[in-house]
Structure to design on (350 residues):
């Protein structure tokens, strides 16, 4: 299938309107043309700085604008992040993603962030960060440190965006993606379904992503996790078939991208996730929590993978005790070589 960057909303809506089984069949055919069948990439996400975000995203429990149960936490120590990455690798993750609840990182934060990237990269993991808006210079610094992916979601359509977020513009998000691409990093960008948007908004979101000069290498599709205290806590549930359709359409119009099942998997049964894989999803977040919201446990994911024959050649991906010990020893060496706690741990939320 030809890779296009000139999709229209009408064309994408026409895909949404196809009979469900026809749409899944087409998506699976496209998927097999560009990706290995029965293989799902696994990532782990860690919140390296939680809460007190100045943004007013209506879906986010980390926003300082809303009263939720999320506690404000300072930027994690570099060693804590590297320890978490070691455990993620031991659990089978191949990419380690680090997220900070910021509008944008300050210059004083950059040395610590760069150390995190270098440390995780040295373990043989792919690296990803989501830090809010970044400048061209910051993007270059992160790329030079070895950051592979930068996550910055568009969230929804340009038309509906102002109903969800007012503290930054849609163009701000596009500018950050441009900085990331210019620095030579890969882009992870998708959206959230279930925020009250229309079917047209969903089509328009996918059009924005597909018509970028280069398709995002990773496209996370999130199903809204409704959190008490946020403006969207009573939003209407997403119909499972509508969500699966979005996965299928994303696969068709961005054939070479990894389409990731992200937030909301805790509310998806095995059958729904299986149809998402059939529709072309080939990446997941792994572990018990995504930033501050629940996610299926690792054992549950492995049980489903075993039933479906997914990653069957990688079932022994956990390192043996010797390799795991070597990884832990590497972290210990870094700890011994670094400055004291006062130099590494500070209130990054100020």
């Amino acid at each position: 299938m030809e890779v296009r960057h000139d999709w229209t909303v009408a064309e994408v809506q026409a895909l949404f309107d196809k009979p469900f089984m026809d749409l899944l069949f087409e998506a699976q055919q496209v998927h097999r043309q560009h990706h290995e069948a029965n293989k799902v990439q696994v990532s782990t996400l860690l919140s390296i700085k939680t809460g007190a975000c100045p943004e007013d995203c209506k879906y986010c429990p980390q926003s300082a604008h809303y009263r939720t149960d999320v506690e404000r936490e300072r930027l994690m120590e570099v060693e804590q992040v590297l320890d978490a990455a070691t455990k993620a690798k031991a659990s089978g993750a191949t990419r380690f993603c680090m997220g900070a609840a910021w509008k944008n990182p300050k210059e004083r934060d950059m040395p610590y962030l760069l150390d995190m990237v270098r440390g995780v990269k040295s373990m043989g993991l792919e690296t990803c960060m989501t830090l809010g808006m970044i400048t061209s210079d910051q993007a270059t610094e992160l790329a030079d440190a070895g950051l592979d992916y930068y996550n910055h979601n568009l969230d929804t359509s340009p038309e509906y965006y102002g109903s969800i977020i007012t503290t930054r513009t849609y163009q701000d998000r596009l500018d950050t993606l441009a900085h990331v691409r210019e620095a030579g990093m890969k882009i992870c960008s998708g959206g959230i379904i279930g925020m009250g948007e229309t079917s047209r908004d969903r089509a328009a979101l996918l059009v924005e992503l597909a018509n970028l000069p280069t398709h995002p290498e990773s496209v996370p599709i999130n199903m809204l996790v409704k959190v008490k205290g946020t403006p969207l806590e009573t939003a209407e549930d997403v119909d499972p078939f509508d969500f699966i359709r979005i996965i299928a359409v994303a696969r068709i119009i961005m054939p070479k991208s990894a389409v990731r099942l992200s937030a909301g998997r805790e509310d998806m049964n095995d059958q729904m996730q299986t149809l998402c894989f059939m529709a072309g999803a080939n990446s997941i977040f792994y572990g018990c929590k995504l930033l501050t919201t629940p996610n299926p446990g690792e054992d549950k994911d492995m049980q489903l993978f075993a039933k479906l024959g997914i990653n069957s050649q990688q079932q022994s991906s956990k390192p043996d005790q010797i390799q795991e010990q070597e990884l832990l020893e590497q972290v210990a060496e870094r700890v011994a070589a670094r400055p004291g706690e006062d130099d590494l741990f500070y209130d990054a939320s100020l």
Summary: The two ends are 49 Å apart (CA to CA).
